[in-house]
Amino acid sequence: MPEILNVLIASVIPLLFILVYAVVILWVEIKVASHVQDRLGYMYTGGFHGWAQPIADLLKLLTKEHITPERSDKILFTLAPILVFASSYAAYAALPFTSTFIAANLNIGIFYIVAITSFVVIGILMAGWSSNNKYSLLGAMRSVAQIVSYEIPTVLSILTVIVAVGTLNLQEICEIQKGGLFSWNIFKYPPFMLITFLIYFTASLAEVNRTPFDIPEAESELVAGYHTEYTGMKFAMFYLAEYANMFLVSGIAAILFFGGWSSPFGEFLAGPGWGVFWFVSKGLFFVFLQIMLRWTLPRLRVDQLMYVSWKVLTPISFVNLMVVGLWAILK
Amino acid sequence: MATFEITTRSVKGDLKTDTMILNMGPQHPSTHGVLRLELVVDGEVIVDVIPHIGYLHRCFEKHAEQMTNYQQVIPYVDRMDYVAAMGNELAYVLAVEKLLGIEVPERVQYIRVIMAELQRIASHLLAIGTYGLDLGAFTPFLWCFREREKILDLFEITCGARLLYNYIWVGGVSHDLPSEFGKKLKDFLKTFPKALKEINDLLTFNKIFIDRTANVGVLPADVAINYGCSGPMLRGSGVKFDLRKNEPYLVYDRFEFDIPVGEGKMGTVGDCWDRYYVRVREMEESLKIIEQAWEQLPPGDVHSAIPKKVRPPQGEVYFRTENPRGEIGFYIISDGHSASPFRVKARAPSFVNLSVLPEISRGYMIADLVAILGSVDIVLGEVDR
């Protein structure tokens, strides 16, 4: 019995985290966007700077009617948002929030995350195909092409880190980086780890469909891409999955390169409680970066996107992997 | 970057590929209004574009014939190119004045120049802002709108309206400039170059923006001339033709300003980036004109030449001016006895510029079509009239 209870608690905590985080980050995104654009954004709902607006939005989405297009493939249409959200939620299981809490301490943690997030592609393709809408289909095809191609530089840069630390377990990767700012992976093998991080961050932007790689849902071209036909909570699931993915890739960046839950001051301000603080704030920092990028840059074209992946990021990350690997052997 | 090869190919065996028809609009975020484009696409590559227009047709020309007098047409003219209403009024009013053969006071002419140039800046700001939006950059749009607001404020303190003014009247203008206009105009003239630089830094010289627009939708000069393109479309292709210089009206011959043309700085002459950049530079030139016009502005009465009755002699007239979107022309026939025009025909620049769209977008991708359409900068109110 306690076994089941443990599993339940371990699985509910990431879900709660995602929900709370999504509400907060929705508000942050709108406020950052507004201030970048020289305006105020939400100001009324709930009093202080419209803090309750995302909650109101969420409630509105919950109460909205589910419209299923008449000639759509109804089973796939319903299944797609669930699959997309479930795969990003499942990935949270292997994310070490602090030294004492990880839902599933897998010894192949990072491998599991890469594998499980690949399901998103299937969900998106299902959504695009089942909607029976040309814009959705084009968006889905773009999305699949994009995510599949960007998985390669992402995985190659993750592999570089693994070569350097010698483990696939995310908890252990964090352990190794304990002991202050300069024991973080980003400062190892200079400057190759920095390059690895830049590649990872760029590629992860494409993985989560954020500007400048938000081509699958390019509003001005494809209306809303693969989720054009979705309404209400099904639409919200895609939205939630997008934000969950944003934190996921940011969290992985924090774990692989910036010490995860370890404090930048060595033993000072360390411990399980502070661990959560450090991990979440590092993750949120990269989410914030993604938001800033979104409101600054235009979007690339499909072929330019492929060019960036196959002709720039993949070769560089490959060479990078070779160099770090060689260095690690010689050391 | 070359265009894509269009192939409707049959793959080995029984597999066959076919083109697909994609309806873009009339409800679509980036058709700039109710334009419907019927796209024949091979995957994402465009084989053909067929624009379907008329969703906003309001029978402007017939309406103009049914009015009780010539002045009543002016508000209708406003609603053609509704983001550059001053320019439309100006062209129509100048045509009627030419038909009447009246001379307006110098002050009125200067005020009209200032208003037309302010309107040009406002209109170009909207054009480049929405162009950024088409390419996925949201922030420049709102920065452009912030600046545009200042111009609209100037219009508002002058005539009370912010979008459709009915300001330029036959023989004069509806209101003289208010006393605080000068101060506000000077503020604007001082802050605008800074704002323009910001927009340039954020959008114009952004690497991604250049990648998306340079060498896309190339419009060669001869094609532009054959299709009758005008305004930034024509000048973007490197043809130095601007009615303000080539056929000066009002007092434009008294000001120093350049005509920016496309130089192919980032790619080929006549690509989307050139058309976009011509607009940016035209705003700088308009600023120069406004500065000079404000300095030379003579005193006088703006209502003195307004005729009691507008009843032109029998005859016909065609008058054209340089609107932000290109050459706008009005052809008016008067039968000599009635107070309303016998016939009004408008030559709308957006309509003519849109006709070249299929020619320049074949072989590009859907994403490029959005960029090309944005660089043509159409206003559907004017295309359909």
TrEMBL record, chain A:
Enzyme Commission code(s) on record: 7.1.1.-
Superkingdom per UniProt: Bacteria
Its biological purpose: NDH-1 shuttles electrons from NADH, via FMN and iron-sulfur (Fe-S) centers, to quinones in the respiratory chain. The immediate electron acceptor for the enzyme in this species is believed to be ubiquinone. Couples the redox reaction to proton translocation (for every two electrons transferred, four hydrogen ions are translocated across the cytoplasmic membrane), and thus conserves the redox energy in a proton gradient. This subunit may bind ubiquinone.
Family assignment from sequence similarity: Belongs to the complex I subunit 1 family.
Gene name tied to this protein: nuoH
Catalytic activity line of the entry: a quinone + NADH + 5 H(+)(in) = a quinol + NAD(+) + 4 H(+)(out)
GO cellular component: plasma membrane
EC top class, as a word: translocase
Membrane topology listed for this record: Multi-pass membrane protein
Protein name as it appears in the record: NADH-quinone oxidoreductase subunit H
From TrEMBL, chain B:
Localisation: Cell membrane
Main location: membrane
Enzymatic reactions: a quinone + NADH + 5 H(+)(in) = a quinol + NAD(+) + 4 H(+)(out)
Residues in NADH-quinone oxidoreductase subunit D domain copies: 134-313
A Pfam family it matches: Complex1_49kDa
InterPro entries membership: NADH_Q_OxRdtase_suD, NDH1_su_D/H, NiFe-Hase_large
Cellular component annotations (GO), alphabetically ordered: plasma membrane
Keywords: Cell membrane, Membrane, NAD, Quinone, Translocase, Transport, Ubiquinone
Membrane topology per record: Peripheral membrane protein
GO molecular function: NAD binding; NADH dehydrogenase (quinone) (non-electrogenic) activity; quinone binding
Claim: Nucleus is one of the keywords in the record: no
EC number(s) on file: 7.1.1.-
NCBIfam families the record matches: PRK06075.1, PRK12322.1
Subunit text: NDH-1 is composed of 14 different subunits. Subunits NuoB, C, D, E, F, and G constitute the peripheral sector of the complex.
Protein's job: NDH-1 shuttles electrons from NADH, via FMN and iron-sulfur (Fe-S) centers, to quinones in the respiratory chain. The immediate electron acceptor for the enzyme in this species is believed to be ubiquinone. Couples the redox reaction to proton translocation (for every two electrons transferred, four hydrogen ions are translocated across the cytoplasmic membrane), and thus conserves the redox energy in a proton gradient.
Family statement: Belongs to the complex I 49 kDa subunit family.
Name of this chain's protein: NADH-quinone oxidoreductase subunit D
Taxon lineage: Bacteria, Pseudomonadati, Candidatus Kryptoniota, Candidatus Kryptonium
